[in-house]
Specification:
Elements (H helix, E strand, L loop, with lengths): L1 E7 L2 H5 L2 E2 L16 E7 L5 E7 L3 E4 L1 H8 L6 E9 L2 E12 L2 E4 L2
Parallel strand pairs: 3-7
Antiparallel strand pairs: 1-6, 2-5, 3-4, 4-5, 6-7, 7-8
Keywords: DNA-binding, Nucleus, Transcription, Transcription regulation
Subcellular location: Nucleus
GO molecular function, one term: DNA binding
């Protein structure tokens, strides 16, 4: 398992798009001449989300729907990781919120 991102969410992240670490973009193969790559990620309840990662290292697609459905707020934490499996690559996303100094999973 390779952690691609662990980030405290900002206002821009929850209102417009998710800024993605440039250093983790290597985990996605973007064809020459393309401006974005599309990928599917599964959350902790096995719901599938279709995201778009641009060359500018921002994630859109179902991102704002994910934010709304999970009720994410500024200060919540976002994780994304990548796993190699016999059936191919699998991406997983998880959101957490700090409650009484403890980070808990947002379902």
């Amino acid at each position: 398992m390779e952690v691609l991102m662990e980030k405290i969410l900002s206002r821009t992240d929850i209102e417009r798009r998710l800024a993605f670490p440039t250093s983790s973009r290597r985990a996605f193969s973007m064809p020459e001449g393309e401006t974005a790559v599309y990928f599917e990620a599964t959350d902790t309840i096995e719901k599938r989300w279709n995201f778009r990662l641009s060359r500018r290292s921002v994630i859109t697609g179902d991102w704002l729907q994910f934010v709304r459905e999970k009720g994410l707020k500024v200060g919540d934490k976002m994780f994304m990781w990548r796993e190699e499996a016999a059936t191919g690559v699998r991406y997983t996303v998880r959101a957490e919120r700090k409650i009484f100094r403890v980070w808990v999973n947002v379902q």
